[in-house]
Amino acid sequence: MSSEQETRKLLVELLRRGATLLREPCPRCGGLMVRYKGVTFCPRCWGTKSIEEIEERVKPPEELLEETRRVVMENLKVHVTELKGRSASSLESGYLGLIREELEVLKLLYDLRERIGAKGS
Q: 72 with 59: CB under 8 angstroms?
């Protein structure tokens, strides 16, 4: 199947799922622009080949933040577990640095979630 046929197939599926076809052409390639789940994009320029890729890219910011938080928490738990029972000299092994960085990421995620929540209010 050609690239153009794949793009058309994606457009049809997006429209079937509730996307809106926009009047304005893509400023980059002149192709069709769509709005789907609040995100405006050109399927051709995005280079997506499947509806699953598009669904992943149009996730709401809150969902992406929560997914990232879960991953960081899983890593944090692993590193804290590894640190337990280690001698003082093993504290230099890098686990404390990793834990510190993961805690900083969690704080950033919390701050972002607060800002996004404030916008929605």
A: no
